[in-house]
Specification:
about 100 residues, mainly alpha
């Protein structure tokens, strides 16, 4: 059985990376629209929630997109998202992280 070459592996990863990036971009747009935060703050929120929930960034983004379509956010993800958004709205001061 032959293994795949490095070029084949990279070639297979490119479509996934593009799709994942698009998912994150759309989720960022949802957060901007839903919470009135800046694009930079929205991306920071996604990254923070990803770290705090030990989830992949694109998984968090997929959950945010599902939420935008009416599905509930999983408990811990919803709680972390609310906490991460708090203080990032214009005119609000962020709380100190725990």
């Amino acid at each position: 059985m032959r293994g795949r070459s490095g070029q084949e592996q990279v070639g297979d990863e490119i479509p996934h990376a593009v799709d994942s990036h698009g998912t994150v971009e759309r989720a960022t747009g949802v957060l901007i629209a839903a919470h009135g935060i800046s694009p930079t703050a929205a991306l920071e929120v996604l990254r923070e929630v990803s770290r705090r929930t030990n989830s992949k960034l694109h998984s968090v983004a997929e959950s945010v997109l599902a939420w935008a379509l009416g599905q509930p956010l999983p408990g811990p993800l919803g709680q972390e998202l609310a906490a991460a958004v708090q203080g990032r709205r214009p005119g609000e001061t962020p709380e100190e992280p725990p």
